[in-house]
Design a protein that fits this description.
319 residues, mainly alpha, 0% strand, globular
């Protein structure tokens, strides 16, 4: 890819996040910060005007039209659109038009959608009627015991963090998309171990409380792949600027491990931590996870070397 094509690729990823305009306020703030970072590399932030955004998407797609550059662009768009929930009608319309603009055939599109549907099913977290709200601040904490031994909880969290780190190293944009449902499934299983019936809305609220955006996290992972050159040879100032910040950060391992351990403390304590307490605990756990990431890097790389996209449903559903 040329430098202008890389910028177009990143620009399309940003536009995909605006395809239905229903992001959480916390997600919007996280996404705004990512967009600002892109802007420093010469990538325009999407306009607030839908008509202007649609025109710009067509221009970016024209820059990437064809199988070599169009395929990773479409995969990235699908990954971003499906980051926080199943595709909405607006997102489906956006992706359908994008396929046409990129010159991709329906066979490939159906395969991409089949893969993402399979992964979503493997990590399904229910949406309960009326949702499950976060508890009120200041309630009396109640200590709970898990139905899973402590050693097994630790092992489950670490295994999921290693798998998330391995997914980050795979070249496919779709592999990055699998990290978010993996994290949601992990939190769901930990909550269940402490006797809580959770749903997607509760888990998304918990992640948003500690500042973890779903869509922005996928875009960050996509950015890292561009920085490492796995979605097209990185060249010039764009590659150097992105690579200096992102290429070796191991964000997926760190975030997954910290979320797992946070969920463990949160549900063991009866879900009574305040938002401020949750953020403080999460930041402390992020520091621990960064040290662990260096220790477990050989395991992460070894798992990435053995991973194939066809293996993901079994791995995502079984860990």
């Amino acid at each position: 890819m040329t430098s202008s094509q890389q910028q177009a690729l990143l620009g399309l990823a940003l536009h995909a996040a605006y395809a239905d305009g229903t992001a959480y306020p916390a997600e919007q703030e996280a996404f705004r910060k990512v967009a600002e970072r892109f802007q420093h590399q010469g990538v325009e932030s999407p306009s607030s005007d839908p008509g202007e955004r649609a025109r710009r998407v067509k221009e970016l797609a024209a820059e990437l039209r064809g199988p070599i550059t169009g395929l990773p662009a479409y995969e990235a768009a699908v990954a971003v659109c499906e980051a926080d929930k199943p595709l909405s009608p607006d997102e489906k319309a956006f992706l359908s038009e994008l396929r046409s603009d990129l010159g991709l055939d329906e066979t490939y599109a159906r395969e991409v959608e089949h893969q993402t549907d399979t992964w979503t099913a493997a990590t399904a977290v229910p949406q309960l009627p009326g949702g499950v709200a976060l508890p009120r601040v200041g309630a009396v904490a109640v200590t709970r015991s898990a139905s899973i031994p402590d050693a097994d909880l630790d092992r489950m969290i670490l295994q999921n963090a290693i798998l998330a780190g391995a997914l980050e190293l795979l070249p496919s944009s779709l592999a990055t998309m699998a990290i978010v449902p993996l994290q949601m499934r992990l939190v769901y299983r930990i909550g269940n171990a402490f006797g809580y019936e959770l749903d997607r809305g509760h888990i998304k609220d918990l992640l948003a409380t500690v500042g973890v955006g779903l869509t922005s996290q996928v875009i960050e992972g996509f950015l890292e792949k561009v920085a490492r050159g796995v979605l097209g040879k990185v060249a010039g100032e764009l590659g150097r600027a992105l690579g200096g910040q992102a290429a070796s950060s191991g964000l997926s391992f760190v975030t997954t491990y910290a979320l797992g351990q946070l969920a463990r403390q949160y549900y063991a304590g009866g879900r009574e931590f305040s938002a401020l307490e949750l953020r403080s605990i999460y930041e402390s756990l992020v520091g621990q996870a960064r040290t662990l990431q260096e220790t477990h890097l050989p395991q992460i790389e070894a798992q990435a070397g053995k991973l194939h996209l066809s293996h993901l449903p079994a791995l995502l559903g079984g860990k």
